[in-house]
Structures are given as C-alpha cells and as structure tokens.
Amino acid sequence: MRKPPDLPKLIAGIRASDRASLAQAITLVESRAPKHRAPARELMQAILPNTGGALRVGLTGTPGAGKSTFIEALGMMLCGRGKKVAVLAVDPSSSRTGGSILGDKTRMEDLARHENAFIRPSPSGNSLGGVAARTREALLLCEAAGYDVILVETVGVGQSETAVRTMTDFFLLLQIAGAGDELQGIKKGVIELADAIVVNKADGDNKMRAKLAKVEYTKVLHFLHPFTPGWKPKALTCSALNCEGIERVWQLIEGFRDQLTESGVFEARRREQNVDWFDSLLQSIVMERYRAEHGQQIQRMATAVKDGQMPVSVALDALLGD
Ligand SMILES: Nc1nc2c(ncn2[C@@H]2O[C@H](COP(=O)(O)OP(=O)(O)O)[C@@H](O)[C@H]2O)c(=O)[nH]1
Ligand SMILES: [Mg+2]
C-alpha cells in the first residue's frame, strides 16, 4: 500500500460490501507501517457502528483433519442460501509456510469464486498476539461489510486456539477417527475450549470408526466443565468431502446462538471478549514501550537474575523502583 488510503471512499466501499475495498481495508489494518496507524484507527472507529452482526465461528483441528474441505462444504451451503461468508485464519507460522489458507484456496476453489464469499489468508507475523489482533480487526471489517458468518480457522500452533476462542462465539474442533485411542494427537486442553467436536471423514470404510469416535468424545465431553456457560458441548460426525452431516453441524451452531442469545450469555461474552482484547493489547503495547525505553537495564537485570547474583524481587525493585 504505497499511496495513502482514501478513507471516505474505503469506508463507503466497505458499507457497500465491495470486496476489493474490504481487502484493501484489511491490508491497511494489517500494516505495521507507522504512517498507516492513524488512518487504520480512524477506519476502525468509523466502521464500529456497523459491526457485531455476524455469527463468529472458530475452527481448529490438526493438519489433514479436513478443515479446508469442511469450510468449503459449509461455506458453499451457506452461500447457496444467500448468506455471506468470510473466512479468516490465525496461523502465526504462516509467514514461514507461505500462508495456510492461501495454499488451501485450491481446496476451497468453489468458495473462493463464489460472489457471497470472502477468503483472507493469515496476516504475516511471528507473534501470535500481533496476528490475533489483526485478525480481530479483519473480523470487524468483514462484519461492517455485511458478512453474516465469519469462519476463523487455526492450525493450532502454540496458543492460537485460545486466541481464536477469545474472538469467536462458537468454537468447533474438527477431528478424525484415530486408530484406537481417540485422544491421541490432540493437544490437551483444546477439547475443553470446544462447543462441539465434529469427527470428519465419516465415509466409506471409515464411517464406523468415526461413529465410535463420536461415542468416545461424547463420553469425554460429559465429564468436562463446559467452556460456554449453559451449553453442553456435543459430538457429531460428518463427511466434508461428501457434504454429509454439514447441515446438522450448522443447525447445532444456530441452536447454540439462539439458546445463548436467549440466556444473555452470547452478548455478555462478546462484551467480555472486548475487554480481554483491550487488556491484552494494553499489556503488549506497554511492554513494548517499556522495553524500547529500558532495554539495557532489563538486559542487565535479566543477566543478574540468570547468574544468581540477584533475587528476582530485588531485580524488579531495581528496575521499577520505589
Ligand atoms: N474421505 C474423506 N477425506 C476427506 C474429508 N475431508 C477432507 N478429506 C481429505 O483430507 C485431506 C486433507 O483435507 P484438508 O481439508 O486439506 O485438511 P486441513 O489440513 O485440515 O485443511 C484432503 O486430501 C481431503 O480431500 C472427508 O470428509 N472424507
Ligand atoms: Mg487447510
């Protein structure tokens, strides 16, 4: 983005749901160039009244579980019903791998071409915090552009599931039936974040195993404390490849939204998520500034602590002193 953005035009374009304007706006908020910060802030302020209207769905699962295929199937189903679907990604490793979704566009060929769909690869960056912050802003921009459903995909690098959980309403874990031990290969704790576990590839020879896995997951979920107050996480099966069971997954998500809207949890959580976002940005910005100003002292204290010359409490006092 070389020329300064024409903000009024950009904002009008977003409100008119013009995809090129949306893409350009996301590029602006993803930019780390200092000269883009002020216009990016102005943009976010301007579109704020038009945000909040989408159902935000997080999706995680190990590579190969079928996330891209699932997004294509669900996305095409929703687009076929006249809904507008945006796909975003949180993948802090994508600067290395070249962007998971970008490569995946081949698996989402029909969706990528559909006029109701918008697909955006993960912003580059090596800090999860930065990637997540920019994805949140992209999400709000998609809402302002009139997208009804926003799917946020993550491959589960580091803490990225937690980051996606904190920016979405519904969190879906896509699994495949393993050989015997269903809990193998899943990072501990991810199940606890899920509102649903969907066992994919329930087709052909694999159908029976997928059904058994679903039974296992149902048992596991029964003993876990639900992440979303008042919601009992469910296990389902589907075949993203054959578009089977996708409708049931969507019904579950809509049922979730209706139930939680009724109980007030839906809105309450979004408000909390905003405060969490504010808190985590505040933390990282304050840290960044402090490090920029006091880098050398921090380094000295860290060395002293490392060499056992100073207790941590004393080093902190020396730094922050009072
Ligand atoms: N049999 C079968 N294969 C599937 C299904 N969903 C995805 N696959 C295949 O699994 C592989 C990985 O799928 P992909 O969507 O790229 O997984 P991702 O890495 O989680 O995004 C591809 O070869 C897909 O064709 C399914 O429902 N059934
Ligand atoms: Mg993929």
From TrEMBL:
Alphabetically, the GO molecular function entries are:
hydrolase activity
* UniProt similarity note: Belongs to the SIMIBI class G3E GTPase family. ArgK/MeaB subfamily.
Organism, as annotated: Coraliomargarita algicola
Q: Which CDD domains did the record assign?
A: MMAA-like
Q: Where is the signal peptide?
A: none
Q: What keywords would UniProt list here?
A: Hydrolase
Known SUPFAM superfamilies for this protein? P-loop containing nucleoside triphosphate hydrolases
Name-wise, this protein is: Methylmalonyl Co-A mutase-associated GTPase MeaB
